[in-house]
Design brief:
Length: 75
Amino acid sequence: MNNVYKAILNQLNVGIILFDQHYTLLYANHFIRDNHKRRIVIGNSLLDEFPELPKEWFKKRVESVVMFHNTSFTH
């Protein structure tokens, strides 16, 4: 990812996570890293890094985003 984009994403007061189709964690901005209970390892499975996520629910959300080419926000 471009350093300019990283700098912008790291200034946001909202969590941003990027992952690939295999749920491999590619990026987590400072908000996520600073507010997560433990150290996040880029390259690990998103589902392993965030075991509190309800896996089946999350996978369905991701599938709908991919299928309909839209965004998803969760709080």
